TrEMBL record:
MF terms (GO), sorted A to Z: kinase activity; metal ion binding; phosphoenolpyruvate-protein phosphotransferase activity
Binding locations of phosphoenolpyruvate: R48, R84, N207, D208, R218
Residues that bind Mg(2+): E184, D208
Protein name: Phosphoenolpyruvate-protein phosphotransferase
Reactions catalysed according to its record: L-histidyl-[protein] + phosphoenolpyruvate = N(pros)-phospho-L-histidyl-[protein] + pyruvate
Function comment: General (non sugar-specific) component of the phosphoenolpyruvate-dependent sugar phosphotransferase system (sugar PTS). This major carbohydrate active-transport system catalyzes the phosphorylation of incoming sugar substrates concomitantly with their translocation across the cell membrane. Enzyme I transfers the phosphoryl group from phosphoenolpyruvate (PEP) to the phosphoryl carrier protein (HPr).
Organism name: Plesiocystis pacifica SIR-1
One of the GO biological process terms: phosphoenolpyruvate-dependent sugar phosphotransferase system
Domain PEP-utilising enzyme C-terminal: 7-293
Keywords on record: Cytoplasm, Kinase, Magnesium, Metal-binding, Phosphotransferase system, Pyruvate, Sugar transport, Transferase, Transport
């Protein structure tokens, strides 16, 4: 089995019946790129930029963002690279943004896009750098923790301002860049059809989506046992987003940890996902599963799992099926 996994690394993740599932890498550090390339990733589905802001006094400059984006695109050509705007909050140490005040409830506080809109100049630096980098390849910009259309249009305003600033300085930049959102707030998943009309792609962030939907702090060990990707409500949320993407003809990806777990591959593809972004190390095994499965059997399992009344029931079903087949 291991031999086969290694042999097939460089082949596309195509099902037995000929459907492509794109497997991309989640990255945060340049050191991870080599492993991700060797694992057979077809581009980057989530580049976390938070590390660029940590352990320093000032936020990164436009130039730094430009160089980072350009280098990533060159390294990954011809594949797409999806860069997420900074997703920081008071749960992370970040002097550059003056984040040292403890919030009672960081997950529900000034984090992520809310923080970015509050530090508009810092966001504009990043957007200008990325818009310039996008001249060098298929760079996509992903916005974290979007809850609905008002927030999206606030960010669109920032994009327009960044473009106007670039036009003024005369620096060359891409006129068309794919902009998409992470779906990680339950409200955004439920109303994904409204969001899908206005974006180029959606990517489901199950780490946060599960935390918010099941009301369990992902950083609190005492409630970790309730963290349940196969909870019927989570499966319905994922399906809702996939259906909205399909109805509006935009790609839907999933980039939470759930994508890295081979036990869930059938369910996720069966629910309609055709792009999964994960830890590089997981790619070969998941690619192998997809190459030895058909869409029909994955859809059949997903349909059965959607009928389960509890996560325990769903888990039993999934484990039994996976053991039977692999
Ligand atoms: C997620 O929430 O699923 C996600 C991918 O983002 P992060 O883990 O960085 O919050
Ligand atoms: Mg998240």
């Amino acid at each position: 089995f291991e031999q086969r996994v290694l042999r097939e690394r460089a082949l596309p993740a195509q099902t037995e019946d000929g459907e492509n599932v794109y497997l991309r890498a989640n990255l945060a550090l340049d050191e991870e790129i080599e492993l991700a390339k060797r694992s057979g990733a077809e581009g980057v589905g989530l580049y976390r930029t938070e590390f660029m802001y940590m352990n320093r006094q000032e936020p990164p400059s436009e130039e730094e963002h430009y160089r980072m984006g350009k280098a990533l695109l060159q390294r990954w050509a011809p594949y797409p690279v999806r860069v997420r705007t900074f997703d920081l909050g008071s749960d992370k140490q970040c002097e550059a943004l003056g984040l040292n005040e403890a919030e009672a409830n960081p997950a529900m506080g000034v984090r992520s896009m809310r923080l970015a809109l509050l530090h508009r100049e810092v966001l504009l630096d990043q957007l200008r750098g990325l818009l310039r980098a996008a001249l060098h390849g298929p760079l996509q910009i992903m916005l974290p923790l979007i809850s609905g259309l008002e927030e999206l249009s606030a960010v669109r305003g920032a994009f327009n301002e960044a473009r106007a600033q670039l036009a003024e300085t005369g620096l060359p930049h891409a006129s068309e860049v794919h902009v998409g959102v992470m779906i990680e707030v339950p409200a955004a998943a439920i109303a994904a059809d409204l969001i899908a009309e206005r974006v180029d792609f959606m990517s489901i962030g199950t780490n946060d989506l599960i935390q918010y939907a099941l009301a369990i702090d992902r950083d609190n060990d005492d409630v970790n046992y309730l963290y349940e990707p196969l909870h019927p409500a989570i499966l319905r949320l994922i399906k809702t987003v996939c259906d909205a993407g399909r109805a509006h003809d935009i790609p839907v990806s999933l980039c939470g940890e759930m994508a890295s777990d081979p036990r869930y591959t059938w369910v996720l593809v069966g629910l309609g996902l055709r792009e999964l972004s994960m830890q590089a190390a997981a790619i070969p095994v998941i690619k192998n599963i997809i190459r030895s499965s058909s869409i029909d059997e994955m859809e059949a399992l997903a349909a059965q799992v959607l009928e389960c009344r509890t996560a325990t029931e769903a888990r039993r079903l999934v484990v039994r099926k996976m053991n039977e087949r692999f």
